[in-house]
Design a protein that fits this description.
It contains ten helices and eleven strands. It is of the alpha+beta class and about 475 residues long.
Length: about 475
């Protein structure tokens, strides 16, 4: 597969960020430093100019006036100021020095010729004796230039070191981030090859990577479970098909060989086994239809209590023959929109399962009640129950919690899957709770019909008023 690896992508990103940071941050820092350094030089020159002004004031008081020769001597003795950098005027505005940057009386901070000029007022007592004007932007000294040069060189070297360190850290960080992804990809490839059982991955310390790893492990476990169900399904279907086919074949071969006569009883047995095959194929077709398409139901507003009462009355003889008590507790005025024919099959399946796993002398109870604005139908038995490991799969097609017992009692593992699909087609839900050895409870929840919801609300309000 073409394309760069995640590690290369991350490393490239780190290098790009390091280069940009190494170029922009030092350049910005250098610019700010030089700006601050220039301000420092200007403040230092202003301080020197003020010190020179104090020397000139002392000279004026000593001489009793301005002596140009002595003024020039003081100017030349200044360590940081040269005569061309300074202009001096007396109190009458006459220029005392032939050179200097000034072009008349300036003000402090005034720009002249592109440079800043500083003006210092000279006083003797309370009397102004002159103005001293000097440029704040003189050429830096050799030491200043050396400082700036060293600063630039050190900044450049620091940027190179920062880029190198960032690239090194990026290499290790990119590796740490990419390794869990690479391992997850490898585990996904193993799953695609059919290796579903994977050992748990040790935590990487990165939450998102751990979530990804756990997701891959969960996928493997889920596919492993589906594979087990698929194999079990194949075995169950093969058994369900083989048993009646074996009976029919043995009967027909015996009759063809003249061992048995083609009596009505033997022909009826063959017809019965063929009917069993047809029933199995019909259930599989029904389930495939229910799971593959949106099931259309012809609903009608139905009184669930009356619907269940009629159904239970019809099944009562079957329970009496098995010596299992069929009890009922049906709340009145519970209405829902159902397809009576399809929903009858749901209740038939639940009651058939309850009867199948109840021993003689046992009891099955059917309840109808309302809860949280919904109709709830519960079918509970006190039979063998369902193991906790089997509960998540009871609605899977062809799943049987105890294969040997299910075959002995005639179950195919399709009825509950069909019941679930039909309940969901009515906009409801079906759930199961069970304790092994103590029985099971199936609960079907349906939306109440509109008029039933209104009636329940009125009754509740009336009760609260009373």
């Amino acid at each position: 597969m073409k394309g760069r690896s995640l590690r290369v992508h991350l490393m490239s990103l780190y290098v790009l960020l390091a280069v940009l940071s190494g170029a922009i941050v030092p350049a910005l820092g250098m610019r700010l430093t030089l700006s601050g350094f220039r301000e420092y030089l200007e403040r230092r020159r202003l301080s020197d100019l003020e010190a020179l002004g104090q020397s000139l004031e002392a000279l004026y008081r000593e001489d009793g006036g301005w002596d140009r020769r002595r003024v020039m001597d003081v100017m030349r003795s200044s360590p940081r100021w040269g005569v061309p950098d300074i202009a001096l005027w007396d109190a009458d505005g006459n220029r005392l020095l032939p050179h200097g940057p000034g072009r008349g009386h300036g003000a402090h901070g005034r720009k002249v010729g592109g440079g800043k000029l500083a003006v210092v007022e000279l006083n003797s007592g309370d009397r102004r004796i002159g103005l001293l004007e000097g440029s704040l932007q003189a050429l830096p000294s050799r030491f200043d230039r050396d400082f700036v040069s060293r600063l630039a060189r050190n900044t450049f070297l620091g940027a190179l070191v920062m880029i190198a360190v960032a690239c090194g850290l990026g290499y290790f960080v990119a590796g740490g981030l990419s390794r869990p992804v690479v391992r997850a990809a490898e585990r996904a490839r193993r799953i695609s090859r059919g290796e579903y059982e994977l050992d748990p991955e040790p935590p990487s310390g990165i939450r998102e990577m751990d979530v990804l790893s756990r997701g891959v492990e969960d996928l493997g476990r889920s596919l492993a479970g589906q594979e087990r169900l698929r194999r079990r399904l194949m075995v169950d279907i093969a058994h369900e098909l083989r048993t009646p086919l074996t009976v029919v074949r043995s009967q027909l071969e015996a009759m063809a060989d003249g061992i048995w006569e083609a009596s009505p009883d033997r022909l009826a047995l063959c017809v019965s086994e063929v009917g069993r095959l047809s029933a199995l194929i019909g259930e599989v077709e029904t389930l495939t239809h229910l799971e593959g398409e949106v099931l259309s139901v012809r609903v009608e507003d139905t009184d669930l209590a009356e619907f269940l009462r009629a159904l239970l009355d019809a099944l009562e003889p079957l329970f009496e023959g098995a010596e299992v008590a069929l009890c009922r507790s049906l709340e009145r005025d519970v209405r829902a929109e159902i397809d009576p024919e399809r929903f009858r099959r749901v209740i038939d399946n639940l009651l058939s399962n309850a009867l199948r796993y109840s021993d003689p002398g046992g009891r099955v109870e059917v309840r109808l009640l309302t809860r949280d604005g919904e109709a709830v139908i519960e079918v509970e038995d006190w039979g063998t129950g369902i193991a906790a490991s089997d509960l998540p799969h009871v609605f899977d097609r062809f799943y049987r919690s105890d294969a040997a017992r299910a075959r002995a009692t005639g179950g195919r593992g399709v009825g509950l899957a069909i019941a679930k699909a039909m309940v969901e087609a009515h906009g409801g839900t079906i759930a199961v709770s069970s304790t092994e050895g103590h029985g099971s409870r199936f609960a079907v929840t349906l939306p109440l019909a509109a008029d039933a919801r209104e009636m329940k609300t009125v009754k509740k309000d009336d009760k609260s008023i009373d």
